[in-house]
Amino acid sequence: MFSALCVSLVLSQAGWTLDTGKSELVVKVWKTGAAAGLAHDHVVRASKFEGTVSLEDPDRVETLALSIKLDVASLVPDEPDVRKKYGVANPGPAEADQKKVKENMLGEDQLHAAKFPSIEFATTKFFREESGALQCTGKLTVHGVTKEVVFPVTVKTGDRVMEGDARLRFKTSDYGVKPYSAALGLIKNRDEVELVLHLVISR
User: How far apart are CA 35 and CA 159, in angstroms?
Assistant: First the structure.
C-alpha cells in the first residue's frame, strides 16, 4: 500500500529536502449522531504532497521554515493498514463504500476538489515555552480559507536528518466545510477533525 505513495523531493535554498517517501499526513474523522453505530470513523491519507524546507541552523529547530502543499484529489480514505496504524479499531467501510466516501469528500458539498485542488500549510515560527516544549505557529489553508494555527511539535535529530511529529485539531466549519451528514442528520461526521503529521527532512 505504501509503495503507492508519491515521492517528491523538493530542494530548499539551504539544501534540505522534505522526504515525502518517509513522511506521512493523515486526517482522522470521527462519526457522531443518533445512528453513529451504523457509520464509520475515517482515516484519510494524503498520497501526494510536496514541500519546501529552510533550516538556517541544524542545532536550532527554531530556525526551521517549512511549507507543505497536498493534492486534495489524492486523498485516500480508510486503507486497512492505515486505519490500524492510527488506532481506528472498528471495521472500516467495504471497498465499494470507500469509493463513495472519497466521492462525497471531494464533492462540491465538502472539500470541492475541483475548485480548491490543494490544502496548504506554512510555518510562521517555532518557539519554546518555559517548560521547554516546542510549539509551532503557521497558516493553514483549507477550502480557500486561511487561518492561523498553533500546535505542539516533537522533534528528533540525527546525522543530516530531522523528524518531526505533530497533531492538530480544528473544526472544518471554520474553513467553510460543513461536516458530512446523512439520514436527516442521524449519521454525520464531527465538526472537529485531527491532522496528524510525521515529517522527515534531510540533506
Answer: 51
pLDDT digits (tens, 9 = 90+) for 192-202: 999 999 999 99
- The total of structural domains in the chain comes to 1
Residue 162 domain boundaries: 2-202
Which of 143, 16, 124 shows the shortest CA–CA distance to 67? 124
Global model pTM greater than 0.90: no
Q: What is the pLDDT of residues 39-66, one digit of tens each?
A: 678 999 999 999 999 988 888 889 999 9
Residue 26 sits in a domain whose CATH number is 2.40.128.110
Q: Is residue 198 a contact partner of residue 23, using CB atoms and an 8 Å limit? A: yes
Query: Could you report the per-residue pLDDT of 19-41, keeping only the tens digit for each?
Result: 999 999 999 998 875 544 546 78
According to DSSP H, which parts of the chain are helical? 80-85, 95-106
